[in-house]
Amino acid sequence: MISNSKMKQETKNIGMNVEMPKASCTDINCPFHGQLKVRGRQLTATVISTKMRRSAVIEFERLHFVSKYERYEKRRTKIKVHSPDCVAAKDGDVVTVMECRPLSKTKNFVIIAKTGSEFGFKERMKARELSKAKGLRTAKEEAAVEEKEEK
Ligand SMILES: [Zn+2]
Fold first, then answer.
1. How would you write 81-113 as a 3-class SS string?
2. Which of the listed residues 27, 65, 85, 110 has the most CB atoms within 10 Å of its CB?
3. What is the distance between the alpha carbons of residues 58 and 44, in angstroms, rounded to a whole number?
4. C-alpha 25: how far from chain center
């Protein structure tokens, strides 16, 4: 058994071709400083929420073939992932995630590296928020908005 202090110092090689985090952490479910092993699928996606402690929601686009039109449509997939303290992922970051054992009912991926940040992420989220609000507005509110726009 490795002692906690030793775990904190060493950054393990997880066997993937990614940059190792410079910071250290005490998270037991960190692939670099804890006991977690990674295997299976590897994905690249954007972080859209980090409101949970040591968890994040990531989102990516995939293409789905529609046979009637013989074309592809875009579909979005959201998954919950574990976010170790040392990686420190923020909203809008593009991250590489790797499959791991199930950490909870809905988490079986872990962030292993940050590769950059999405261009225009804030604007994209704002636009989505606005379109959501539009659908929820009542007829009365809608009329008020239209009146304002006319002025
Ligand atoms: Zn760590």
1. EECCCCCCCCCCEEEEEEEECCCCCCEEEEEEE
2. 110
3. 9
4. 20
Tell me the CA–centroid distance for residue 142 and ligand 1, in Å. 49
- Ligand 1 centroid distance, CA of 85 (Å): 6
Using the mean position of ligand 1's atoms as its centre, give its distance from the Cα of residue 14 in Å: 11
Q: Report helix, strand or coil for 139.
A: helix
Q: Where are the domains of the chain?
A: 4-118, 119-151
For domain 4-118, the CATH architecture is Beta Barrel (2.40)
- Give the span between the Cα atoms of 23 and 38, in whole angstroms: 19
DSSP state of 19: P
CA Rg value for the chain = 20
Measured CA to CA, the distance from residue 32 to residue 13 in angstroms comes to: 7
Residue 128 CA, ligand 1 centroid: distance in Å: 33
